[in-house]
Every structure is written in C-alpha cells, then in structure tokens.
Amino acid sequence: MGFQLLTGIYILRGLVQSGLKAYLLITYGVAGYGQMIIYLTIVGWIFEAIVIGAYLFTGTRIKKHLKVHYGIEMKPPTQAI
Asked: What is the pTM of this model?
C-alpha cells in the first residue's frame, strides 16, 4: 500500500499544481506571474512535506514487516575507516 500511496501523491501533486496554475493564470493573467510563482512554490513545499512523510511511513512499514516475518532488524550501514 505504501508505494501506491506515493504514486497517488505524485499524481495528485501534478493535478493540483496544473489546476492551480490554470486558475491563477485565468485570475491574475500574465501580469500576475510573480504571485503565481509564490503560490506554486508554497504548494510545492506542502507536497514535498507530504511526500517525505509518505516515504517515512512506507519505510517504517517495511521495517516492521521484515522484523515480524523474517526476524531481520534494519540497521544503518557502518563505515570502515
């Protein structure tokens, strides 16, 4: 379910940003391009936070699945110096 969630978020992000861009272009016209960039940047940041949360959620579920079903605990790699 995690990877389907990520795919859905990316699709939703594309649709929302395209729709917002069309709406702002109709509302403000070409002269309001500066405002349009500000709104699109803020929406982009919001979706990036959502994507990061979804990646963390998916990673947590994968770790739990590996631990429960295979007895494997994920550890960060160690560096040999």
From this structure: 0.75
DSSP 75: -
Q: In terms of residue numbers, what domain contains 45?
A: 2-70
State the Cα–Cα distance between residues 35 and 32, nearest whole angstrom: 5
Does a structural domain hold residue 76?
no
Q: Please tell me the total count of domains within the chain.
A: 1
Q: Apex CA 41: angle with CA 36 and CA 47, to 5°?
A: 125
Task: Evaluate whether 66 touches 74 at the Cβ level (below 8 Å).
Answer: yes
- Give per-residue pLDDT as tens, 7-56: 999 999 999 999 999 999 999 888 888 889 999 999 999 999 999 999 99
